[in-house]
Amino acid sequence: MRVLGIDPGLRNLGWGVVDAHGNKLRHIANGVIHSQGADLAFRLMSLHTQLTEVFHRYSPETAAVEQTFVNKDAVATLKLGQARAIALLVPAQFGLEIGEYAPNAVKKTVVGVGHADKTQVQHMVRMQLPGAEFRSADAADALAIALCHAWNIRSSSLRIRA
User: Fold this and answer.
1) Tally of domains in the chain
2) Taking a C-beta distance cutoff of 8 angstroms, is the pair 80, 9 a contact?
3) Which of 19, 133, 138, 141 is catalytic?
4) Residue 25 three-state SS
5) Three-state SS at 136
6) Active site residue 7
7) Active site residue 138
8) Could you tell me if 80 and 116 are in contact, meaning their C-beta atoms sit under 8 angstroms apart?
């Protein structure tokens, strides 16, 4: 199963693609989409266009998006929510089921600790996906989200069979 993980952001939207076959995980690709334009509407459209290109290129079978946390700046939280809407919209347009995970749930699944720092997450992503290279924390986070989703799908299917 090909899984796309998305770390939503208005300026930098991380994405990561992994293949999951039983217990085997394989890194396919990752990157960061940078929104373009000064106007919010054009930045959102830019995210949509570029994320759609990722879908066309890698043909994921399922997707997962990190849930938004609320911070002290309401305007920034609202903008992040709008970028997250794009991250949910594009997979839905391709007819995919979408998993949503809180940041602490992703960290707990990938690292084993819900309050792990970015360095620990990146280390565990490299351990689970040997040879995976990523240039930013956003791409590493997206791969962690994809791993979390792959493991949750696998766990669900094992519970159904039992």
Assistant:
1) 1
2) yes
3) 138
4) strand
5) coil
6) yes
7) yes
8) no
Q: Give me the CATH number covering residue 39.
A: 3.30.420.10
pTM: 0.93
Which residues contact residue 9 at a Cβ distance below 8 angstroms, ignoring those fewer than 6 apart?
A: 80, 83, 138
73 is annotated as an active-site residue = no
Question: Which residue out of 53, 66, 133, 141 is catalytically annotated?
Answer: 66
Q: What residues make up the domain containing 147?
A: 2-161
The answer to whether 143 touches 134, Cβ cutoff 8 Å, is yes
DSSP 23: T
* From 7, 73, 100, 141, the catalytic residue: 7
pLDDT at 29: 98
Q: Are 35 and 43 in contact (CB under 8 A)?
A: yes
Per residue of the chain (162 residues), give pLDDT as tens: 999 999 999 999 999 999 999 889 999 999 999 998 889 999 999 999 999 999 999 999 999 999 987 677 888 889 899 999 999 999 999 999 999 999 999 999 999 988 999 999 999 999 999 999 998 999 999 999 999 999 999 876 544 444
